[in-house]
Amino acid sequence: MPDRMPGQQEEVRKDWDTYFMDIAYMVSTRSRCPRRHVGALLVQGKKLLGTAYNGAPMGVSDCSEAGCMIVEEWEQREGVAGEPEMVKKQRCIRTIHAEQNLLLFTDRIDREGSTVYVTDQPCWTCANMLANSGIVEIVFHRGYPKDAAKVEHLMAQKGIVFRRLDGYAPPPQAGAAVVD
Known about the structure:
CATH topology of the domain at 16-55 and 95-174: Cytidine Deaminase, domain 2
Radius of gyration: 18 Å
CATH architecture of the domain at 16-55 and 95-174: 3-Layer(aba) Sandwich
CATH class of the domain at 16-55 and 95-174: Alpha Beta
CATH superfamily of the domain at 16-55 and 95-174: Cytidine Deaminase, domain 2
Helix content: 25-40%
Order of helices and strands: HEEHEEHHEHEHE
Number of helices: 6
Strand content: 25-35%
Shape: globular
Low-confidence stretches: none
Strand order of the largest sheet: 2-1-5-6-7
Distance between the termini: 49 Å
Number of strands: 7
């Protein structure tokens, strides 16, 4: 290793979680969704096997061209003091989620024993799909409170390591959009 010049600081190397989450955020910049840019990676060991982002199917007008296709759904949840309450959820049905695209464009054999890095905590549908995909870990940055409790419970049932990167800051060039 060459000697440093006088006064030159040693550069701190990023840990693997930060490295892969930075890549997930950069992948998310490909999204044209005006509501949320999401990027996902498939990693086995320290080898990057695939990337994906959220958006309309290939060759179809996306939300920035044709507008979002928002549907509203009601879900019963446990509220204050255990009382059931109805919660309204809105979601775009034009967009294929980053996790779904990742599963569509990677092979099952590559997913066995792998980790998924995703900018956002998976929704219930994506969590179900990931639970059956062969992965052993999901690492995410931004929470998704609408489905958090049931997704966490599912991951615990499946024995999938499910962890949030607290204290992480996305690269400034990612410019991730988030509208709830």
